Amino acid sequence: MSSTSSSFHRLLTFFSARTNTPNKNTIRFTDSLKGDLSIGLNFPLAVILATLRHLVFGNTGFLSLDIYVPTVRTSRTLLGGPGKFRIEEEKQYGLTELVGQVRRDGAGLVATADAVGLWALAANRQGTVSGSDVRAFQRGDVMERIAERRKGRAEVLPFWRGGPIW
Q1: Under a CB-based contact definition with an 8 Å cutoff, are residues 106 and 79 in contact?
Q2: 3-class DSSP assignment, residue 101
Q3: Which residues, 6+ apart, have CB-to-CB distance to 40 below 8 Å?
Q4: What is the model's pLDDT at position 5?
Q5: Residue ranges of the chain with pLDDT lower than 50?
Q6: What are phi and psi of 27, to 5 degrees?
């Protein structure tokens, strides 16, 4: 992806990077599933999200489950885009605090939903998300950070947030 790609497109490329094939712009269903599993989601939820992602963004043919990332049409900016909202990068935000900050800064329903979704995916075991993760989400680079943190057993998602049952 070029440096001019949107943060949403950069977020999607996380899933295309799960493949061993040289084309990093195409997300196959298995890549999508591997990406969801790599951020710590349980298998049934990962299958549901991968399926939804391919139904919503699939753009390579009626019967194809591939997504060609550069042609996904979107004008979305994640959480209003980089620099929006008074987020301190060194601070930890709980769900209510993050949503409250986003709402105080005049966010609409979509940005509020982004904040809740980010918190559900990125929050640590104590239920907080760092301000630097919020900024990385706005840029579209947060998924690699989450996947790296969730490699071991120290940061396993709780079941009620989509993590494994055990």
Answers
A1: no
A2: helix
A3: 146, 150, 155, 156, 157, 162, 163, 164
A4: 64
A5: 1-4
A6: -100, 115
User: Given CA atoms 102, 103, 107, 108 in this order, what sign does their dihedral have?
Assistant: positive
**Alpha-carbon distance 46 to 18, whole Å?**
14
Please check whether residue 77 is in contact with residue 140, taking contact to mean a CB–CB distance below 8 angstroms: no
Q: DSSP for 29-84, please give it.
A: HHHHHHHHHHTT--HHHHHHHHHHHHHHH--S-TT---EEGGG------GGGSTT-
Count of residues for the chain? 166
Q: Pseudo-torsion of CA 82, 86, 89, 93, nearest 10°? A: -120
pLDDT of residue 103: 87
pLDDT at 166: 61
The single residue listed with the structure tokens 């993590």 is 163
Question: Token pair for residue 120?
Answer: 């559900």
Q: What angle do CA 22, 122, 101 make, to 5 degrees?
A: 125
